[in-house]
Amino acid sequence: MDSLYQEVILDHYRNPRNKGRLDPADISHEDDNPLCGDQIRLDIRLGEDGRVAEVAWDGHGCAISMASASMLSQEIQGKTLEELLQLGKDDILEMLGIELGRARLHCALLSLKVLKTGAFGLTAWTGVEES
Ligand code: ZN
What we know:
This protein has helices at 2-14, 63-75, 81-86, 89-96, 102-120, and strands at 27-33, 38-46, 52-60. By secondary structure, it is an alpha+beta fold. Strands 1-2-3 form a three-stranded antiparallel β-sheet, covered by helices on one side.
């Protein structure tokens, strides 16, 4: 099971989905994880119904941070802002499908942190302290 999940992560790392930029975008934000050197920028366009219509992300970093951003960019398509606000650590871990130590958690959660900060101004959110 573990190797299957790792294959999925490597696939997203090597063939990232929705990588690029949106200009203009309704939500645009970037942040980094200095512990590992990961950097992620996220651009989101909202449709007239208030749902996520288009997502693009760009950045560089380790496989976990890049795969997480790629997966998250697919996950949030069509979601409302309220649904985005509900996303938490567990959703990311479920997407990645592997157990992560504390250091890797910062990598995995960076894309969601960029989303939380850019869309809702939750600058203090790291997700790492959530149980
Ligand atoms: Zn990393």
